[in-house]
Design goal:
Elements: H1 3-21, E1 25-29, E2 46-50, E3 60-68, H2 71-75, E4 82-83, E5 87-88, E6 95-96, E7 107-116, E8 128-131, E9 147-152, E10 155-160, E11 166-171, E12 175-178, E13 184-202, E14 213-220, E15 223-224, E16 227-228, E17 238-245, E18 248-253, E19 277-285, E20 292-303, E21 311-314, H3 317-332, H4 350-363, H5 368-379, H6 385-402, H7 406-410, H8 412-415, H9 439-444, H10 482-501, H11 505-526, E22 527-528, E23 533-534, H12 545-553, H13 562-572, H14 578-590, H15 594-601, H16 609-614, H17 642-650, E24 653-655, E25 662-665, E26 674-681, E27 684-693, E28 696-703, E29 708-714, E30 719-724, E31 727-729, E32 734-735, E33 738-744, E34 747-755
Parallel strand pairs: 25-29
Antiparallel strand pairs: 1-2, 2-6, 3-4, 3-5, 3-7, 7-8, 9-10, 11-20, 12-13, 13-18, 13-19, 13-20, 14-17, 14-19, 15-16, 21-26, 22-23, 24-25, 26-27, 27-28, 28-34, 29-33, 30-31, 30-34, 32-33
Helix pairs in contact: 3-4, 4-5, 4-6, 4-17, 5-6, 6-10, 10-11, 10-12, 12-13, 12-14, 14-15, 14-17
Length: about 750
């Protein structure tokens, strides 16, 4: 073959490899990463994909979407429903359907290719199926999602409209033993909301007579040695059920009694879903050594979850264990298909849902569970004052993480009352105790109870065995509440941003002005100038941790006051519950107090995540310990905040613009020697790893295609040299102890900071 022909051949092979490596991934339809498992109820869905990070500086300049009525047509590149052609655009998310009319109760298939800045066209992505349900049906509330049935590979699958279904996941024992009394003890390794199936052999004693036998099955969350703890205390579970067996080898399914709703919006399993309960351990108390356990299975119920989409590792083994505990808790507490976590309540609360939402974004590329939970909470409000304000926070985080305006546009008018501006009084603050909670107000926020009540933290003293004042640090509840008004300010700030995003500029200016008024009134009425800290309300001198940490977390503390406020917060330790700990950690990391924040996360006291592991729970718990809440349960995701705090604040990966088109990586300055994270986002996986010692800091990152990052490098000591991708940099600026590198485009990059060695003493 002539040299010229060889060159043409090699170029062709190289182009083929380029296309194979750079095909779009992470396809989503209506923000669903697994649309084949559900149905969509809109005739004009939206499509998105991730542009790979294999090559440096990959920018999409055009895309081509093919949508077909059959997989055969799609494989033949026949977009018989829609062929967008190569459409000039850098947008890779939320592309609206513009083809032939989709039919309800149908299945379709799609794929996409893109063109980059060099004019190269990728190969098509792998196909993705999506299903349609009913279009335009009347709903009880915006966002209502029914159970429906679909055909999945020839099998009937119950699923939800517009969100991923809950599925049973088969798990097997980590340990099985038969004790001397004939009792079988089974350890599945971790608790899950599940039911159990056993294969048992019961020997026949008389071939002409069938003799049934009733044995006892125990399931529980806590063990003592190789036995289930039958009196575990608090709300920790241990249950006994009779099971009738017959001679021979048979499978037996443990039938768990149906959950009974005891709360206003508690959720029960529909008839077509087998009931589940959280357990890790099983005992088969048969009192007959001849009865043999041949196999045992735990069928855990939760939404579809990609365990490989996220990761966190550090040089601290305790941080790693805590992250994994929290990540697992987020996954398995979706057994209802939303954020109605915990066995006792099975009811969504806005604050619980917000923390679950933030953790879910950090551990899986999943948006539908959070979006459904947000919509549900808007129309099914709960009683705590601050919880109502969390609804605005959930809406903003939906937009910030997806870049999709649908929810904030559709529900904009429902969100406005959730700022609680209707409770504003002459002094510029809000209060639930000044007679403003009338019927119209309660109806505007969709609350069906008598009135809102300020909560601050939970539990209060009536639920706590060990603390005076419960987990509120003896907060002094006054007519005007510091914590409530801190949340009110934060909601106004976010509502201003939401209004701007949807083009409501006059509203944006109003909410911005209201926020400024609240900030002024907040510091006028709640700040004790003599002590340099915040008190709990007008008319008290008591200053709880909460009054100060929420003020710091939401940006209410003026710069001159930060030193005394931070010192006061640090003097308090973890004087709050697992819910408020989320904001304590946020406040500390944002204030540059990463070292102290990490000391709280890795604490070995009984007020810690380590204590949850030490006492034997494999999910995060409702309170730090049973002694801090008399009915403390071992299955609650509202205490899982480290799952998002560690990648967001220690590694420092956070969106700068909605939908992660631009994001920052700003590692916290701390003594952690090594840490890495893989964070799933709407635009693909972001990876970051740093190593840190006295004289050298190194950060390696993987930036998805069609995005850009702002990199912050710690300048904790005098900087001697900066090296970017092997090239020393002559010019750099240091601000607020960081060197900013902007922009950094797609691909793998390495940044190094060399510090001047300290002179010998």
């Amino acid at each position: 073959m002539k040299t010229k022909n060889w060159i043409i051949f090699l170029l062709a092979i190289n182009t083929m490899l380029l296309k194979a490596e750079n095909e779009p991934t992470g396809l989503v339809c209506n923000l669903l990463a697994r649309p084949e498992l559900t149905v969509i109820t809109t005739p004009q869905p939206q499509f998105g994909w991730a542009v790979p990070s294999d090559t440096a500086n990959v920018k999409q300049t055009a895309y081509r979407i093919l949508i077909a009525s059959s997989l055969t047509n799609l494989n033949e590149d026949n977009g018989d429903m829609w062929d967008s052609g190569m459409t000039p655009s850098n947008q890779s998310q939320h592309i609206p359907y513009k083809g032939k009319a989709l039919q309800p109760q149908s299945s379709y298939f799609w794929k996409v290719a893109y063109r980059n800045g060099n004019g190269e066209v990728s190969s098509f992505s792998k196909p993705q199926q999506f299903n349609t349900g009913d279009f335009g049906r009347t709903t009880a509330w915006k966002g209502e999602s029914r159970w429906v049935k679909i055909d999945r590979n020839g099998e009937e699958l119950w699923t939800f409209e517009d969100r991923n279904p809950i599925l049973y996941h088969t798990l097997y024992p980590r340990k099985t033993i038969q004790k001397t009394d004939g009792t079988w003890f089974i350890d599945f390794g971790r608790s899950a909301f599940a039911y159990a199936v056993f294969m048992l052999y019961y020997p026949e004693t008389d071939t002409t007579t069938t003799t049934e036998k009733t044995i006892t099955i125990r399931i529980g969350e806590k063990a003592v040695g190789d036995s289930i703890d039958r009196v575990p205390g608090g709300g920790v579970l241990c249950k006994e059920y009779p099971l009738t067996i017959r001679p021979g080898i048979h499978d037996y399914t443990l039938e768990i009694p149906r959950f009974v709703s005891n709360y206003p919006h508690s959720q029960v399993m529909p008839a077509h879903i087998r009931e589940v309960i959280p357990f890790r351990y099983c005992e088969i108390a048969c009192e007959d050594p001849d009865i043999m356990l041949l196999s045992a299975s735990q069928y855990a119920l939760h939404t579809a979850f990609d365990d490989q989409s996220s990761a966190f590792y550090s040089s601290s083994e305790m941080l790693n264990e805590i992250y994994n505990l929290c990540k697992y808790s987020i996954k398995v507490n979706t057994f209802n298909g939303d954020y109605a976590a915990s066995q006792r309540e099975r009811m969504m609360y806005e604050a619980d849902s917000y923390i679950h939402q933030m953790g879910h974004y950090a551990v899986d590329r999943e948006f539908s569970v959070a979006r459904y939970s947000l919509k549900n909470m808007i129309f099914h409000a709960t009683w705590p004052t601050e919880w109502i304000l969390h609804t605005v926070m959930m809406a903003w985080m939906d937009y910030l993480h997806t870049g999709n305006k649908d929810v904030v546009e559709e529900l904009y008018d429902e969100l406005k009352p959730k700022t609680l501006v209707a409770l504003t009084t002459e002094n510029g603050l809000i209060s639930t105790r000044t007679g403003l909670q009338n019927k119209d107000f309660l109806a505007s926020i969709h609350f069906n109870g008598k009135e809102l009540q300020d909560i601050v933290d939970w539990p209060h003293s009536s639920m706590s065995n060990a603390l005076k004042g419960g987990e509120t640090d003896a907060f002094d509840f006054q007519e005007y509440n510091t914590v409530v008004n801190a949340f009110h300010y934060h909601a106004l700030v976010l509502m201003s941003k939401i209004a701007s995003a949807v083009g409501k500029n006059r509203d944006a200016a109003y909410y911005n002005a209201q926020a400024a008024k609240v900030k002024k009134a907040f510091n006028l009425h709640f700040f004790d100038k003599t002590r340099g800290i915040y008190v709990d309300g007008i008319g008290t001198t008591h200053a709880a941790l909460h009054s100060n940490m929420f003020a710091l977390a939401f940006g209410l503390v003026p710069e001159p006051a930060k030193e005394t406020v931070i010192a006061y917060i640090k003097s308090k330790g973890m004087a709050c519950g697992v819910y408020a700990a989320n904001y304590l950690l946020e406040a500390l990391f944002n204030a540059g107090e990463a070292e102290y924040a990490l000391s709280l996360i890795t604490s070995t006291t009984d007020r810690s995540w380590y204590n949850m592991i030490r006492i034997g729970s494999t999910m995060t718990t409702e309170a730090w310990d049973n002694k801090y809440k008399s009915n403390n349960g071992w299955s609650h995701a509202w205490s899982s905040s480290p799952a998002h705090i560690l990648p967001r604040k220690l590694i420092g990966i956070e969106p700068e613009t909605p939908g992660f088109e631009t994001f920052r990586i700003r590692p916290a300055i701390s003594s952690v020697k090594e840490a890495s994270a893989k964070l799933p986002t709407i635009r693909g996986e972001i990876k970051a790893t740093f190593t840190n010692d006295a004289n050298h800091f190194q950060l390696t990152v993987t930036i998805p295609g069609n995005t850009q990052a702002i990199i912050y490098l710690p300048a904790k000591e005098k900087v001697s040299e900066i090296i970017i991708d092997g090239i020393p940099q002559k010019h750099f600026k240091i601000k607020d102890n960081y060197i900013m590198i902007n922009p950094v485009t797609s691909g793998d990059h390495k940044f190094e900071v060399i510090y001047q060695a300290s002179p010998p003493v």
